[in-house]
Amino acid sequence: xxxxxxxxxxxxxxxxxxxxxxxxxxxxxxxxxxxxxxxxxxxxxxxxxxxxxxxxxxxxxxxxxxxxxxxxxxxxxxxxxxxxxxxxxxxxxxxxxxxxxxxxxxxxxxxxxxxxxxxxxxxxxxxxxxxxxxxxxxxxxxxxxxxxxxxxxxxxxxxxxxxxxxxxxxxxxxxxxxxxxxxxxxxxxxxxxxxxxxxxxxxxxxxxxxxxxxxxxxxxx
Amino acid sequence: xxxxxxxxxxxxxxxxxxxxxxxxxxxxxxxxxxxxxxxxxxxxxxxxxxxxxxxxxxxxxxxxxxxxxxxxxxxxxxxxxxxxxxxxxxxxxxxxxxxxxxxxxxxxxxxxxxxxxxxxxxxxxxxxxxxxxxxxxxxxxxxxxxxxxxxxxxxxxxxxxxxxxxxxxxxxxxxxxxxxxxxxxxxxxxxxxxxxxxxxxxxxxxxxxxxxxxxxxxxxx
DNA sequence: AATATTTTTTAATCAAGCCTAAAAATTAAG
DNA sequence: CTTAATTTTTAGGCTTGATTAAAAAATATT
Lengths: 221, 221
Ligand SMILES: [Mn+2]
Ligand SMILES: [Mn+2]
Ligand SMILES: [Mn+2]
Ligand SMILES: [Mn+2]
Prior knowledge:
2 copies of one chain form a homodimer.
Chain A: H1 5-21, H2 26-32, H3 37-49, E1 53-56, E2 60-63, H4 65-88, H5 97-103, H6 109-118, E3 145-146, E4 155-161, H7 166-175, E5 182-188, E6 195-198, E7 204-207, H8 209-212, E8 215-219
Antiparallel strand pairs in A: 1-2, 3-8, 4-5, 4-8, 5-6, 6-7
Helix pairs in contact in A: 1-4, 2-3, 4-5, 4-6
The structure holds manganese (II) ion (4 copies).
Chain A binds a DNA duplex (30 and 30 nucleotides) through helix 3.
């Protein structure tokens, strides 16, 4: 009962789709995996046979306890490797995803737990996403909201992103927006929903609504 | 012109066989890769078509410059990961080989070079094997000899092993033989070629010829 | 040189994962 | 309720890297 790389990637996708849509449909998976519906059908049957998902034709797939556990452990590996790459190897946060995508399939639990210890049990990855613990329990992030919901005058800390693509993250680099940095909403333009933020040194940043929707923040009390 | 995991493993095997036998024969490769002669033939043709080896049927294979470069870079990755696993994650030296065997196929040159820097450019791996530099140049080890060639009275430092299997390394653990430790040959039994060594605290260790042949040492002037 | 032995190659199969195109099932619309 | 549109499955193929068994080629032996 060994899980292949491809199977692990499917499990991760199903977990994500289940969280957002309640169920992972064939179509959504095909898009997510950049594959075809026919290929998805074949894989779903395999995953069902191995007890990793429950699957009803035409009604989509859901992870079993076992499948969920494997998916969370894969995510744990992925995010711990991202922490390693950024903290220890000094990679920029916009260039670690694809490498972590490979590393997440290497090694067993003992290995990941040693990595976790070496990194001092980090709780969030470089993109602010929570790292599941050794038992596969995902820590919940406290009440983050998309930054476009903040009102003029609000002070907040940037805590996460909805989009971890290198294109988006490089854009944030150019704007000087990083995790942990705090800003105050300075203006909001009703016309296009764009906003202006004031940084700590008083520097102003302008963000399109498209961008600010993808930034997760925590309001300061 | 992407090199698969299997191809990288073949290149490593060919490099090793070329060093010991001058050429990598089909048969030797089949043994080394735990595969069959038929499978080897197929792979050698693929490697030749990609310009990684020169291959003449019935006369074996040799690496081209390109093939040699790839083989050495794979070995570089393997050994750097072993250093990481032992030095940073505190794995024992007898349990890192299989993990490194997976990790050596992940990531590109930039990645390995950052790992190298993080580890402070180590020159030897945990088994005393030299780590090729960023250009793929193997550093040569200075005049190591198998420990069975040392004579009674000789003082030496353990610098390497010929066999990196976990069985052998665990046996050395039990005997208290580690890299960097120094001993003096105390006795040699002509009957079976076994030897007795005296350690620093005067403790005696007995080694079969089978074992002492696999330990590489440097004689103290 | 002729035969026997070893080594290598060919040929036919397999399994995992993917693909495209056609058929079938389901859901949506009239 | 019947037809149309969408979604999913089946069927047939492809690629990579294996396997076994038989054929062919190269060595070794007499
Ligand atoms: Mn990632
Ligand atoms: Mn991440
Ligand atoms: Mn090794
Ligand atoms: Mn080693």
